[in-house]
């Protein structure tokens, strides 16, 4: 039997970002390093927060960072397995620029046996001038939760 | 001005396109809801944490706007931060969210927003939000 393949975000992204909520948002893969992943949320008129301003709502930015967190964890462990978000904190630094997409870059800075800690930023071109800062904690889900008797 | 003259709860474009609707008003605060569907799906047959967070956040703003309307105050609302706790998996069911305003100050508001499905005592997520209330035409 061959070794299971190491999780590769660039290879997995087209499939992972195609379906469901993140597919609807149109998230795109940008880049990855040893312990981080970068995704992009393209600007779209029907994702606006306030009607008077052409600025993306903050909800999709949380989705972007949540998804980038998951992929950063799988990229760091090298294994794609079910994880659950325990908590996620987003500090908004400034509004995103009008009619501009947002980039989410998240790193997994610490792994324990069952928890993964992540931090990241959402920015619109310059990572040093972020739209938001994020910190979160994830747990691995043992086995397939759908088979656990209620 | 009577209640019927007031515009119905206005939700942002993002909320409308995700399918978030006003379910009812409860003690003066809106209960928002979203049905399960592919647009909110994360891992198969479950809500995506981002979609749940989006619902919590929209419910937070909607609740705060109602509370401000009650006090005849007009502000431009700006997000400061949000911390979401994910408490149990969101299943393939209609999900509700409602805000509780913990503190309504002059410049900032602190809210707790809760999301549940068919059992209100079993929350699927909750959020704490700080929102800046700026003057309608600037900071």
TrEMBL record, chain B:
Domain Thioesterase: 46-121
Name by which UniProt lists this protein: PaaI family thioesterase
High-level lineage: Bacteria, Pseudomonadati, Pseudomonadota, Alphaproteobacteria, Sphingomonadales
Pfam families, alphabetized: 4HBT
Highest taxon in the source lineage: Bacteria
UniProt GO MF annotations: thiolester hydrolase activity
